[in-house]
Design goal:
The structure holds 2 protein chains of 2 kinds. Chain A is an alpha/beta fold. Chain A has 2 domains: 251 residues, Aconitase, domain 3 (2-Layer Sandwich); 147 residues, Aconitase, domain 3 (2-Layer Sandwich), CATH 3.30.499. In chain A, strands 4-3-2-5-6 form a 5-stranded parallel sheet, sandwiched between helices. Chain A has a 5-stranded parallel sheet with strand order 16-15-14-17-18, covered by helices on one side. A 4-stranded parallel sheet of chain A has the order 10-9-8-11. Chain A starts with a helix and ends in a 9-residue tail after the last helix. By secondary structure, chain B is an alpha/beta fold. Chain B has a single domain, classed as Alpha-Beta Barrel (Aconitase, domain 4), CATH 3.20.19. Chain B is 34% helix and 20% strand. In chain B, strands 4-3-2-1-5-6-7 form a 7-stranded mixed sheet. In chain B, strand 2, helix 4 and strand 3 form a beta-alpha-beta unit. The longest helix of chain B is centred in the last third of the chain and has 11 residues. Chain B is globular. Classes of the chains: A alpha/beta, B alpha/beta. Chains A and B meet through helix 2, helix 3 and helix 5 of A and helix 5 and helix 8 of B. The site of iron/sulfur cluster (SF4) has 12 residues of chain A, from helix 10.
Chain lengths: 417, 164
């Protein structure tokens, strides 16, 4: 019997010949990620009685969650972080304006096949799109990693999700992952490694694969994973300077479950308040009035997302009474969208072009909601209170659905335009 | 270790945003202050009503969502003695152990425990006693138990570093 990707990569990172699902091992990661929570982590780090982090070169810090600072407290938080990285000699520091960590890490070459990335953010799973084993940890664990370079992990069992078929027009990776989460449930892959395989995934862009792995955590998965291929190495080519080893599951690996999907006739999907797995096909919710539309976040703030929205909105005007906020996921995306005239097309359609960052995704600033308001967002979470108000309603959908709905002022099937 | 506490009962998929709202994650740093906002968007009566040693009982996937450690810290400082659930989200599971907050996973007990009743938990024996009877649960793996018994990951690691 062969081994899964998860078993192989964690054996390597724990210095063992082989390990099996269920075992607990001590691993040393390649990268340790944190963001605005770095100040809090540095306070925990101080309690460990060490002055210096052991591997400053492994640490990557991106300021993204509340940027630029919304108030004095956030400003102070950022200041503490800047002082900390200088004092510790951490070179992998990206200040306000670079983008959302999950976009910035791959862009800067920190995510690559076979790497182990531990991040104090749940959507660290995103880097599975590049064949990395990447998962979220807590703040204390990040502090302990800074001090010891070690952490325990349980070897997860693996689910293999096989996808075939060709997406109908306007239907994309976001609709697929919402559909999967809706079927499997918010705990459908709890503690599991989830491999996305099959012809549809092979044909999918890197951005689309990032959407799948980003949201794998919304069904409880420990990691998402896509087999690295030529597209991956082309994307990583100019960005990753070091050598890497592509690690894949053996052909006779023991999968706990194999689940199959076909996207040939898949309609656009929408996750309804207040649970990500409360997913409905578009026809069940179209007509729902919206007040705000959000295009961005680590799920759908990439070039192809902005492009698809612009192709729908170009030369038109969004409905009155709707605010459309656009957050490019990174400065790199922002610059490219600027150069290609995409941002101008969106702005002319009535969108407010915001800075790269998380924006109102976690309810801190830049477009929080009022009681009774409805937001249709390309984000990954719609929990009660998520966008700053417990009595607001968040629906999640693809960039195409968000653009079409902003145009009409209510949730709209983009295929009906 | 024996724990006796009143039950606060909730449903499935209790996520970290309702346990500790995202809007406070970078502005509240004092754990005592965090405690005052625990479960704010789920049960506004909780933070003011909870007593030391009380037990949260919930369905599946408790603590899903964000990696925010405050979701565990706020409950610990609010005085919660243990969380009993059918299953836990993985990062919350880690955060709770690391914060020194005991977790009990039981497939059947949560459905049988009634709101507001008083339950007794024997962590060594792996037994939970409620009005409907005694439920057994599997103790945590040894590696993980060590962290919990040290009072959390930070004291555990400090000890480790001192002996190096
Ligand atoms: S965009 Fe939203 S989900 Fe993504 S890292 Fe930022 S706050 Fe988290």
């Amino acid at each position: 019997m062969g081994f899964t990707f998860a078993e192989k990569v964690l054996a390597k990172k724990s210095g063992k010949d082989k390990v099996a699902a269920g075992e607990i091992v001590t691993v040393t990661p390649d990268r340790i990620l944190s963001h605005d929570n770095t100040a809090a982590i540095s306070r925990i780090f101080q309690q460990l009685g060490r002055n210096k982090v052991v591997h400053p070169d492994k640490i990557v810090i991106v300021l993204d969650h509340c940027v630029p600072a919304a108030n004095e407290k956030h400003a102070l938080n950022h200041k503490v972080i800047r002082e900390f990285v200088t004092e510790q000699g951490i070179k992998g520091f990206y200040d306000v304006g670079t983008g959302i960590c999950h976009q910035v890490l791959p862009e800067k070459g920190y995510a690559f096949p076979g790497s182990l990335i531990l991040g104090s953010d749940s959507h660290t799973t995103t880097y599975g799109a590049f064949g990395a084993f990447a998962t979220g940890i807590g703040r204390s664990e990040a502090a302990v990693l800074w001090a010891t370079n070690q952490l325990w992990l349980r070897i997860p069992e693996t689910y293999r999700i096989e996808v075939e078929g060709i997406f109908p027009p306007w239907v994309s990776a976001k609709d697929l992952i919402l559909h999967i989460i809706g079927e499997l449930g918010a705990d459908g892959a709890l503690y599991k490694a989830v491999e996305f395989r099959g012809p549809t995934i092979e044909n999918m862009s890197i951005a689309g694969r990032m959407v799948l792995c980003n949201m794998a955590v919304e069904m409880g998965a420990k990691i998402g994973y896509v087999l690295p291929d030529k597209k991956t190495s082309q994307w990583l080519g100019p960005r990753v300077k070091n050598n890497y080893e592509v690690i894949t599951s053996d052909s006779d690996a023991a999968y706990e479950r194999v689940i199959r999907y076909n996207v040939n006739h898949m309609p656009p999907q929408v996750a309804c308040p207040h649970q990500v797995d409360n997913v409905k096909a578009i026809d069940k919710v179209s007509g729902t009035q919206i007040h705000q539309a959000l295009l961005g976040t680590c799920t759908n703030g990439r070039m192809e997302d902005l492009e698809v929205a612009a192709s729908i909105l170009k030369g038109k005007r969004i409905a009155s009474g709707v605010r459309l906020l656009v957050f490019p996921a990174s400065w790199e995306v922002y610059r490219e969208a600027w150069n290609k005239g995409i941002l101008l097309q969106l702005a002319e359609a009535g969108a407010i072009i915001m800075n790269p960052g998380c924006g109102p995704c976690l309810g801190a600033h830049e477009g929080v909601l009022a009681p009774g308001e409805v937001c249709l967002s390309t984000a990954n979470r719609n929990f009660r209170g998520r966008m700053g108000c417990r009595d607001a309603f968040i629906y999640l959908a693809s960039p195409a659905t968000v653009a079409a709905s902003a145009l009409k002022g209510h949730i709209t099937d983009v295929r009906s335009l | 270790m024996l724990l006796k506490g009143k039950v606060w009962k909730y449903g499935d998929d209790i996520n970290t945003d309702v346990i500790f709202p995202g809007k406070y994650t970078y502005t509240i740093t004092d754990p005592e202050e965090m405690a005052k906002h625990s479960l704010e968007d789920l049960d506004p009566a909780f933070a003011s009503g909870v007593s030391r040693g009380d037990v949260i009982v919930a369905g599946k996937n408790f603590g899903c969502g964000s990696s925010r450690e405050q979701a565990a810290t706020c409950l610990k400082y609010a005085g919660v003695g243990a969380v009993v659930a059918k299953s836990f989200s993985r990062i919350f599971f880690r955060n709770a152990i690391n914060a020194g907050l005991p977790l009990i996973q039981s497939a059947d007990a949560p459905d049988r425990i009634k709101p507001n009743e008083v339950v007794t938990i024997d962590f060594e024996k792996g037994e939970l006693t409620c009005e409907e009877g005694v439920f057994t649960f599997r103790p945590l793996p040894e590696e993980v138990m060590g962290i919990l018994q040290s009072g959390g990951l930070i004291p555990y690691t400090r000890k480790l570093l001192e002996t190096e």
